[in-house]
Amino acid sequence: MSVLKMKFESEEESLFYLPNTVVKSNKIIINAKEDISVLPGEIKEIDLGVKLSSTDKTILIYPNNHFTDLPIIYYNLNNVYDENAKLKIMYMPNLETYKKLIISGIDSFKLDLLKLAKKRNSQKIMDNILSHAEPFVIQKGTNLLDVHLSDYSEFLVEIN
Predict the structure, then answer these.
(1) Predicted confidence band at 1 (pLDDT cuts at 50, 70, 90)?
(2) Cα-Cα-Cα-Cα dihedral sign, residues 122, 125, 127, 130
(3) Both 37 and 67 in a single domain?
(4) What is the pTM of this model?
């Protein structure tokens, strides 16, 4: 049977995953180790706080189903785990965020939209519009990634 090894930056983080060492599984869920605040349009690196390795198979990572419901996209996720790759996310405000900006009465917002429609300094205008939006916060403990082995078989978890 394959073994998925998890090496954590701190012992406190490893305690959360300890129950996974008792039974075999075909999936482990990696959670946010702290609150993550992301501004609209910002690309932010996430420190997962864990290094993964397998005794004999490639490790695959996918966005968790819960995470795909959020207005966040993975910027550089290629589904094959690479311990040297930095996971990056971007907050893509949805239509509701833009409606809130209009309703809140930002004076220049309507003018900025007109300029944007006429394609004048679009990046500068978008930056101005988005600077009024609230950051999106991913709460500590939010399910981020599903981790599988390449053949989706069951495995044992070992914490180092």
Answers:
(1) confident
(2) negative
(3) yes
(4) 0.74
